[in-house]
Every structure is written in structure tokens, then in C-alpha cells.
Design goal:
Elements: E1 2-6, H1 11-18, E2 23-27, H2 31-40, E3 43-47, H3 50-53, E4 60-63, H4 70-79, E5 83-87, H5 94-106, E6 111-114, H6 121-131, E7 138-146, H7 158-161, H8 165-181, E8 184-192, E9 203-210, E10 215-221, E11 233-237, E12 241-245, E13 264-267, E14 270-271, H9 279-293, H10 301-316
Parallel strand pairs: 1-2, 1-4, 2-3, 4-5, 5-6, 7-10
Antiparallel strand pairs: 7-11, 8-9, 9-10, 11-12, 12-13, 13-14
Helix pairs in contact: 1-9, 4-5, 5-10, 8-10
Length: 317
Amino acid sequence: MKILVVGANNFGQKHLSGIKGMEISIVERKPEVIEKTVEKFKIENVYSSFEDAIKDRFEIVDLVVPHYLHKEMAIKAMEAGSNVLVEKPIATTLDDGEAMIRASKDYGVKFMVTDQYFFDPSVRAAVKFIRENRIGRINTIIVRDQRFFEHGGWRTDKDQMGGGALIDGGIHFLDTLLNFGGNYESIHGKSIHGGSILNGEDNTAALFKFENGTYGLFFYSWSYRNPPELPAFEIIGEKGSIYEDVKSRTSWEVGTPVRTVYGDLIVNGENANVKKYDVYTAEIMEFADSVKNNTEVPFPPELALRDLKAVLDIYKL
């Protein structure tokens, strides 16, 4: 199977390190990035132009590009007959996301958003335990992440991002919250600019009310200097609790054998002994299996659209 990775720098390196047993080509213009990528990975071809690259036949095109390019590039790849992976968010607007889903059906190709948080073993196990009623009726879910953004690049540009911190990193944590809580009926909250170099917002606090009566507390910040180490999620039920053990998180560095998003899962005070695996390999290779076997993709794009809707609902407040 042949895969084309568009954008080999930064997160592109993590995608490349998750690919197993495929012929890999890349689209990249920066000489220093090309050099390190060819040295580190077995690269079949290097293209400087996306349009030239998709003239060749690739079973999978993996787009690791700024948010505002997702729709245009994804649909071009679909027109060329490729199955498409795109980094989160699915797009910057619901209309664009819906157009991408329609195009995948029209052209008869698979389409999925790569969100490693959805594939995290602790998240999958927590969802299973909730469905098994392990801690009884859920009353409160807390999901949070706080850090300080000091980087440059396109993420500082509100137009390229489609917003600020929430649509970029925060959407991961909204996915986790919604996977635990289900459909929501209302949101109260606000996104503000709290002091980073972003053009867009960098601080969000929100209260979700879910259709099942559960409440969700959400906090996400790129303007939090010297943040404390806190569990990224806590699920509080009438018979017990589930939360993340922050001390057991793994490194995301390329070369780390098993990379997870969250730490171990603590259920009713005890380690749940969830089997760990590499989330970057899981998201790409499970998608490749769906292409090979003509089965449903593991992370339906409709769920990625759900996550984007939550972001945009908060932005409206």
C-alpha cells in the first residue's frame, strides 16, 4: 500500500513514525526537513508540489497541513481516487466539513480525521467501563488541559487556524469529553484572549449539560504560566470514579516505543491495567485496515464534525 504524507515537519514526523509496512512518499519543500526525514524513514519519493504528487496513484493521502487548507486539499486528493486522512480539526467550518464527507461518498473513498486522543487506550477503556455501568450513573465529567504557548508559525494566525487554541488543541479534549458524555443539550461558557502570542483566543471555560443529565466541566488554556499537574479527565459516578493518573503519561517523542495521550486509568481507586499501544500507529494503521478490508473507518468523520460543532458553539457564546 502506498501512502503520501503531505507536510513532513513537526507533527508530520509523528505521523511518519506511526506508519508500518507501507511505501511512503512525502510532499515537503524545506531542504532541512527533507534531509532529516529521508535519513530517519524509508522514503520512496519526495515531491515539492501537492498537485504533482497526486497525479501518481496513492491508496492513502495523509494531510498534515494548516486547518484552512483541509477542505481544498482533501477533495483534490479524493478526486484523484485516494483515501484521505486529515489532521484535526476536520475543517474550520461545518459547511466545509460536510462538503468533505459528501465528497468522500461521491468519489467512493474512505475519509477520516486523525485524532490520536480518540484512539487512546485509556479513553477507549473508560468508555467501555461507562457502558458497563462500572461506576453507576455519571453525574459529573471534568476535562481540562492547561499550558503556555510560546511557539511561532501558522498557529499564531487566526485566519489559518479558524480560531485559536480551542479549535487546534482544545478540540482533542472536547472529543474526550463528548465520548464520555454523549450528546449535549446546552453549553454555557466563553473563549477569551488571556495573554499568549496567539491572534485567536487562548483560554476557554465551559459547562456542558448532556442529554442524559450528566454535567461536564471543561477548561482549556494556552495562556496558563507554570501550570500544575492535574488529571486531564475525571468521571464521577454515583458508585465510584474514573480518572487519569497524570504521573504515568508517556513521551510523544519520535522513537518512544509506545506513545499514549493520557496516563493510566484509575477506576474506583485502583489501576485498571489498561494495555498500552502507540496511538499514532493505531490511528493510521486502523485506517489502512479499513481501506484494505473495505470496512468502516475507526473514527467516523461525523464524530469529528460533532467535535467541530462543539468548538463553534462555544465560539458563538
